[in-house]
Amino acid sequence: GNAYVFDVPENEYFMMGDNRDYSYDSRFWGSVPYRLIVGKPWFVYFSWDKDKNVRWERIGCFVDTLENDEQYIHDHDDEDKLS
């Protein structure tokens, strides 16, 4: 497949649909500011660190609410971003 590079501004997130070939997501409409994210996560499907190593201990973990995870996101924002 083709590989593309997307620059994601600070405090914005790249949203990817689960049906890659038919999802209209950040590849089409760009990144999303955190303040506009209204969905609530249910569980961690996949996770990797800044060095692109899989974080196996997080996969399959349930997330209570986005509000409860907001502090984690804030504390780990720089290390969780992929370039």
From TrEMBL:
InterPro entries the record matches: LexA/Signal_pep-like_sf, Pept_S26A_signal_pept_1, Pept_S26A_signal_pept_1_CS, Peptidase_S26
UniProtKB keywords: Hydrolase, Protease
Location in or out of the cell: Membrane
Top-level taxon: Bacteria
Chain segments annotated as coiled-coil in the UniProt record: none
Family statement: Belongs to the peptidase S26 family.
Identification of the protein by name: Signal peptidase I
Species of origin: Campylobacter jejuni
